[in-house]
Amino acid sequence: MDAATLAPQTSADQRKHIHLIGICGTAMASLAGLLQLKGHRVTGSDQAAYPPMSDLLRSLNIPVAEPFGERNLEPRPDLVVIGNALSRGNAELEYVLDQRIPFTSMAQLVREEFVVGHESLVVSGTHGKTTTTSMLAWIYEVASRTQPELAPSFLIGGVAENFGTSFQLRDGRPFLIEGDEYDTAFFDKGPKFMHYFPDALILTHVEFDHADIYRDLDAVKTAFRRLVNLVPRRGRIIAFDNAPNVRDCVANAFCPVEFYGFGEDAHWRVSEMTHDGGRSEWKLSCGDEPWATLRLPMAGEHNALNATAAAALAAGQGVPVEAIVEALETFQSVKRRLEIRAVVNGVTIIDDFAHHPTAIRETLRALRAAYPLARLWAVLEPRSNTLRRNVFERELCESLSLADRVVLAGVFKSETIPEGERLHPEQLIVSLAEQGHEAALYAHADDIVDAIAPELGSGDVVAILSNGGFDGIYEKLPARIAALCRQ
């Protein structure tokens, strides 16, 4: 990142030593980078540093202490940021409370340091937030080449490949952020997105998710309604049209709501969509008038809809259509979203951040479009708080049935989920088999690698679905395939 493009730093008398507990989370590491760019001294700690964010922090020379401990808070910082995964009993958190060191949450500090004084553009929804925010950031970046006031600052929950980073600090007016509905901190159980006070908002989908903190779908919808209620009358909401839950959440908005999608009454209407391998193209109308032909070097209807939402919001905020078209044509995706990790002996290994049955379904549909002749494998680690539970067992079975072969790992930290709520993968295997689908269950990543590597052949596509590290399977599987080829 060119230092000349950065916003002015905080004056010397306002710079602080800020320590982040739980710094290796995606949002926390990105916040650390933003705070450093602003001129603060940043340190952090985690139970165990892990990539990709540990690699990012190392590249920024931000020290990360591990594991958690009181000594990590020496010398005493001016401010401590408490990650939302932390709870009472954590050694550093207890020390902060005992010593009355000032503390805050990630979301609150983002608002105070970066949102205030900027145009707050928030991307929210159960699915598509990271990709849509990355698209929106790239649209603004392209537009800023001729209109410097549009140069975007952003914080994204993933590495946007056009930028090679998950954060940026510029001197333009917009601040773009992924609006997460997960809770904020142990002392603030409201959603993070309630801190961002959007001037304009994208709402992609609303489904039941985060079963560890939301009781049911109504509770999720209540959270999104409260977010909608923060948008001022002068603001705008871009909302997906083919989703009754979304319509329910925006029904009482005080600002204009523009729907996007395939419906005849959508303000931003998608038509004539085609897919050619890993590329998509479609016509987009605004109102009743043709607006643009959009092209995206990504497969999948869901990615085209994400791009449409980003285009609609940007256009309404004054970004020229020419910049929007150019940006989408040159968009390079996001790390861990349909990311090709390796091609070995004709076997393509895809990494996708799977957290919900709907996301899995759309990922597999996109891969079918991109690789229509391939034998498609779905290798799933039930790791998110929703997938580890049985609440979506039927929907998960339906999503996985889109693959030719299904391989399941054991539920991540299954012992932390009550028995009555826990997903039982063995039952999922039985259900898939009863429907005529080939499926197998293995306890660990190493077992999966041992079992499937000899079966993989040229032309196969393996989608590895997890929102975590999956015990290094992304590296282990290609290495085993290569080793078998040498034998």
Q: Summarize this, please?
A:
By secondary structure, the protein is an alpha/beta fold.
Number of domains: 3
Which architecture of the largest domain does the CATH hierarchy give at level 2? 3-Layer(aba) Sandwich
The poorly predicted ranges are 1-5
CATH homologous superfamily placement of the largest domain: Mur-like, catalytic domain
- Average pLDDT works out at 92
Query: Counting H and I runs of at least 4 residues, what is the number of helices?
Result: 14
Spatially, the strands of the biggest sheet line up as: 8-7-9-6-12-13-14-15-16-17
The general outline is globular
Approximately how much helix is present in the residues? Answer: 25-40%
Radius of gyration: 22 Å
Main sheet attributes: strand count, strand direction, barrel closure:
10 strands, mixed
- Indicate the structural class: alpha/beta
E-strand count: 23
Reading off the top of the CATH hierarchy, the class of the largest domain is best stated as: Alpha Beta
